[in-house]
Amino acid sequence: DTGVSQNPRHKITKRGQNVTFRCDPISEHNRLYWYRQTLGQGPEFLTYFQNEAQLEKSRLLSDRFSAERPKGSFSTLEIQRTEQGDSAMYLCASSLTDVYYGYTFGSGTRLTVV
Amino acid sequence: DAKTTQPPSMDCAEGRAANLPCNHSTISGNEYVYWYRQIHSQGPQYIIHGLKNNETNEMASLIITEDRKSSTLILPHATLRDTAVYYCIVRAPGTSYNQGGKLIFGQGTELSVKP
Fold this sequence. Notes:
The complex is a heterodimer of chains A (114) and B (115).
Chain A lengths: L4 E3 L2 E4 L5 E6 L6 E7 L6 E7 L2 E5 L7 E4 L6 E5 L8 E8 L8 E2 L3 E5 L1
Chain B lengths: L8 E5 L4 E6 L8 E7 L6 E6 L4 E2 L4 E4 L5 E6 L8 E8 L17 E6 L1
Parallel strand pairs in B: 1-9
Antiparallel strand pairs in B: 2-7, 3-4, 3-8, 5-6, 6-7, 8-9
């Protein structure tokens, strides 16, 4: 297992287009988290899944954002009608239910909306 | 979850110990102290965590004061590759089904290790 994998690493899109990112967690991890990070700031929590159930969503996750985790394995984060303010690094992390030992983060997908 | 306060930046000479402080005066009894670091253009990396006892692993040592209101992360022999933003986070573990145990990141401390 090579850790948490995120694709693509970089995405440039025009304003108004839809984009989708994928995250493949560590296989035995049943929790999966999405974060967003803008330049100079710490990561901000967006949402998390326990298996296939989405259990919490941040108020940062507007109606244009949707996340899924079918079958409790990989997850996708879709942004509809992108805006320039959506430009950020989108980070995925996974963990076991017992999170005493911390998360494992992926390297992120950097989105640029032009 | 309790909030933390960290200095925005610190410098350290290569080969010397880097001591990164964190204040968490409102920490609750069941909240752990976690440290992560983020090297430029990478995702955050878990370093260490503790409840009330000092902890050490292959990466670092964590010293938590007796009243648990502050802690220090120690990198015993800093190298240039330790240059990163270091985040101190306190939270309760999310072990039940509907407790996410999500991490709330602050601004962190930008550590620059210089030759």
